[in-house]
């Protein structure tokens, strides 16, 4: 290597050195968003101008990503619930309740993830069809002790405690319940037998000595994600309930929940 | 800062961000949930040094970057090409050593002249000449309009001519002198 090439190399190294370390992804994102202090912004600008390792391209990618993040335009094929603020809020409350429990077991994470997907697969998820009061109603208050798992709804309005729940093959199949806009939203997992799901009727037992039968709206069901049922809050006061999803006379799955009213924090 | 409110306000943006990045819907929802789990975990530590939206953006973006890095790693399947071999390949395609030395010497002179320009003007020139960015890209980085960039480059050329005097060669600033070509490209 000649002296001249060495000099040129030294100069290049010197410039790279003066430009400092390569900025992190976070720094580039903050730069793109205009949220960096002037001093840091200046440093990164200097670095990007001198860096021959692609930091300039990384920064431009951060700008593109920010643009993609900030656009409020809907994306083709996006989950329908993104256009329903009340559904989003209900999910937020359910997630807050889940995360508020430090010993949150992994299965509930899965249930919650599934619940998140439920609404994605369905539009609305509103109260299923007609609400009938069966003439042969009988009360079935479950005598089981409260389950150790519970979802504490984020607004402190109600505590919803899913009890042990099983489909007819014995698989653990608890519902996820959210209290969002004055309604209860039940997200019922489909049993393995997808051909029977979602059935025709959801029977709610233990409602003030009555039995409520909700006709299942099959358009609100997805064989993979489950069934969304929205029930006006006033129809299901605090208490324990057994929910039976049935097709014809045959039960497909049974879910147990307890609803406790708790004071607002 | 209310978590449910944040969830309500930012879930559409976060999910759509992942979808725009080509993430399948199921995975986009999983990643969205992961974003908000991190938001929940970080709320107490958040010091409002940036806007909340920017903070959530950085979380979402980092998850997305991790996602594509993981995909890239999967695709590699353990086959790596030594970097030295690639560099050697590039070297062999270069012009002869004498030309290379002259080019480097010319660049050294130009760098010294550039050092006399005001900082932001110098960076603009470097981004154009050395990094080969388009005007639009430079404007984005520098946070100014394309017109301002064109103006700065025009002024930089005059200054370089003054600084280098007889040593100025038109080729030194050749990259600055083709706004029409760039404009056409950018319009395309």
How far apart are the first and last residues' alpha carbons of chain B, in Å? 45 Å
Shape of chain B: elongated
Global geometry of chain A = elongated
Q: Over all CA atoms, what is the radius of gyration of chain A?
A: 27 Å
Offer a quick outline of the entry.
The complex is a heterodimer of chains A (265) and B (188). By secondary structure, chain A is α+β, with helices and mostly antiparallel strands. Chain A contains six helices and twelve strands.
Describe the structure.
The complex is a heterodimer of chains A (265) and B (188). With 265 residues, chain A is of the alpha+beta class. Chain A has six helices and twelve strands. In chain A, the strands form two sheets. In chain A, strands 1, 2, 3, 4, 7, 8, 11 and 12 form an eight-stranded antiparallel sheet that branches. A four-stranded antiparallel sheet of chain A has the order 5-6-10-9. The longest helix of chain A is centred in the first third of the chain and has 16 residues. The N terminus of chain A is likely disordered. Chain B is 73% helix and 0% strand. Chain B is built from nine helices and no strands. In chain B, α1 packs parallel to α3, α6 crosses α8 and α7 packs across α8. The two termini of chain B are 45 Å apart. At the A-B interface, α1, α2, α3, α4 and α5 of A face α1, α2, α3, α5 and α6 of B.
């Amino acid at each position: 290597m000649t002296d001249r090439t060495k000099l040129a190399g030294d100069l290049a190294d010197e410039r790279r050195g003066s430009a400092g370390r390569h900025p992190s992804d976070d720094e580039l994102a903050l730069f793109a968003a205009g949220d960096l202090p002037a001093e840091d912004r200046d440093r990164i600008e200097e670095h990007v101008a001198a860096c021959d390792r692609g930091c300039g391209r990384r920064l431009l990618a951060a700008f593109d990503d920010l643009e993609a993040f900030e656009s409020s335009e809907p994306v083709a094929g996006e989950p329908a619930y993104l256009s329903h603020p009340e559904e989003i809020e209900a999910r937020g409350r359910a997630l807050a309740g889940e995360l508020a429990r430090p010993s949150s077991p992994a299965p509930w994470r899965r249930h919650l993830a599934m619940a998140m997907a439920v609404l994605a697969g369905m539009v609305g998820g509103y109260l299923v069809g007609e609400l009938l009061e069966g003439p042969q109603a009988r009360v079935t208050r479950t005598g089981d002790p409260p389950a150790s798992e519970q979802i504490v709804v984020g607004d402190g309005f109600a505590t919803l405690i899913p009890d042990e729940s099983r489909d007819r093959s014995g698989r653990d199949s608890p519902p996820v319940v959210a209290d969002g806009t004055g309604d209860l939203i039940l997200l019922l997992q489909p049993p393995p037998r997808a051909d029977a799901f979602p059935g025709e009727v959801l029977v709610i037992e233990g409602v003030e000595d009555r039995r409520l039968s909700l006709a299942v709206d099959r358009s609100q069901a997805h064989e993979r994600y489950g069934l969304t049922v929205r029930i006006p809050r006033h129809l299901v006061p605090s208490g324990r309930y057994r929910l039976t999803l049935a097709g014809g006379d045959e039960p497909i799955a049974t879910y147990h929940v307890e609803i406790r009213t708790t004071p607002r924090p | 800062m209310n978590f449910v409110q944040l969830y309500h306000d930012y879930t559409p943006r976060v999910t759509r961000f992942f979808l725009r990045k080509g993430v399948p819907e199921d995975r986009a929802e999983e990643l969205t949930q992961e974003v908000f789990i991190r938001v929940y975990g970080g709320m107490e530590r958040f010091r409002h040094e940036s806007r909340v939206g920017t903070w959530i953006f950085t979380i979402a973006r980092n998850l997305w970057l991790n996602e594509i890095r993981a995909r890239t790693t999967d695709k590699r399947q353990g086959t790596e090409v030594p970097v030295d071999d690639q560099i050697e390949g590039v070297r062999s395609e270069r012009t002869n050593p004498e030309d290379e030395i002259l080019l480097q010497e010319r660049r050294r002179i130009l760098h010294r002249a550039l050092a006399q320009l005001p900082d932001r003007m110098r960076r603009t020139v470097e981004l154009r000449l050395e990094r080969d960015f388009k005007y639009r890209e430079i404007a984005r980085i520098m946070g100014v309009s394309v017109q301002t960039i064109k103006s700065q480059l025009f002024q930089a050329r005059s200054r370089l001519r003054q600084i280098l005097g007889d040593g100025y060669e038109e080729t030194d600033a050749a990259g600055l002198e083709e706004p029409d070509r760039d404009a056409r490209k950018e319009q395309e």
